[in-house]
Amino acid sequence: MLETLIEALQQALDLIWSGDPEIVSVTLRSLYVSGLATLLSCIWGLPAAVLLGLSSFPGRRLVKGFFNALLGVPTVALGLILYLLLSKSGPLGIFRLLYTPLAISIGQSILITPIIVSFVSSALESTDVELRDLARTLGASRLQTNLAVMQEALWGVTLAVVASFNRAIAELGVAMMLGGNIRYVTRLLTTAIALESARGEIAFSIALAIILMVVVFSISILLNFLRRG
Amino acid sequence: MTEKTAGRIRATKTKTLIVIILVAIVIGGVGYAYLGMQGTQKQHLIVSTTTSLYETGLLDVLKSRFESEYPSINVSFISQGTGLAIQTAMRGDADMILVHDPERELKFLQEGYGVNRKVIAYNFFVVVGPSEDPAKVRGLSPTDAFKKIRESEENKTTLWVSRGDDSGTHAKEKRIWKAAGFDAAKLREKDWYLEAGSGMTATLKIAEEKGAYTLTDLGSYLMNLKNKNIKLEILIEEGRDTLNVYSVIANNPRKTKSNLDASMKFINFLVSDEGQKIFGEFGEEKFGKPLFAPYIKLLKSGSGQELISWIQELAYFDGSECPTEYRYQADQLYQIIFRELIAYTGIDRIENSHPSSCDYYA
After folding, report:
1. Do B201 and A200 touch (CB under 8 A)?
2. The model scores a pTM over 0.90
């Protein structure tokens, strides 16, 4: 049994070295879809986090608690809800988004928004209060003050963004339900792994799994390296 | 650390972050252009289909041939169990279905979701199990084998693995249990009856690990045997009770706004000589024998009357593969076949009520 495993691993590595076009296209698509999802969630997540982390308003703790609770939302549940919404017979069906890469990006961006909001607002909160006061006394506008605090919390913000990208690229439920795993259109690393192992193409799935892990780990390692440098 | 160096480090960090963001944007842009190129100016045809058909890789061959004939149409397959595949189409998220469960196909037609059904191919389910064959079913008829398997399972010597996912294979299994005199709904309570709840390969692997029996389509079995996923052996081969018939049905455009035009082009391609040839040859090279048998080719051959009557008994409704009330702008589809049949066989047994009948042998 071990021999077949080693053989499969060997085949997987061969597939990667040879730059199998299917593997390359699936990898690029995954990076694109999850990259777009991260970008989208930053667009609305970062302002929300600033609001939550740097200002006080009634119910702030409640909102924060809400986002914290959403951190663990099951991907299949979210996928199912969005599937029913985006289906042609659903309320958002007219946009014809189901089974498109954009649908996956939107789904993933919703999935990771709580990570951005929760982590970034915490990072902002933990910056020195005096920094804010100092900036204000030096005559900085509200925006400038927020930017100064953001810069101070840069590491925390970066970490949140990377963590959310990793969660997006590694999730399966949303991609499967909203994308439908269509070859050349919505097949991503995770859905391809699910399919290829379901059809018994073990070497192919191992190759894809290796790539997925390399993507996730290398971003984290790169980040660690940058922090030290 | 002086303030100056601290400031410099912070500046470098900011710069590297900017570089990372730029790289991400470039990757995104390249990816977008790449995906955009594939999707421009094309009609999309979404086919909701079964895992047993998709996992073999046959559909990708059909897709590439069809698309080279109709470059403006882009075919996409969503592969699920037949039950789910039909639901997807009912929700309007697919343009047509390619499935193997006549009973549910009839329901799909009756409820007004589908039009222009066509039987396109068939093969056989097989009962597979460990080579020791603890229940001693080798060579029996399917119903006798099921009876015997159940007996020995009750004696705790064997296990049965069911797909349990509402797929066409699952429906067939339940039907054979019924023919053998058992109610599958009750069997699932037993602890020797394992429900996999997933695709055919996963189910076969469970059977392999547990040394259990299961029902599988021949295609999935040969594929997994070839990939060395399983060592299970075929214990019961083709027969009337294990016949597996694949049909295609277009969505009713009046109900779900589907793309009927593209669907009909694809159906016409599937029943064409070229499409039927692909069905008949696929798998020969890789697995040593073809995984599917083309039905229209069988009709045209004028032989195999017994097999044809089995297929029609299983998969025809009121003696027709698609009763006229479920046809919609489909004269061409059925007439072509009809004329060719006359030419090939010279037999004429059409009922008067079905003037353009595809159901030539009915």
Report:
1. yes
2. no
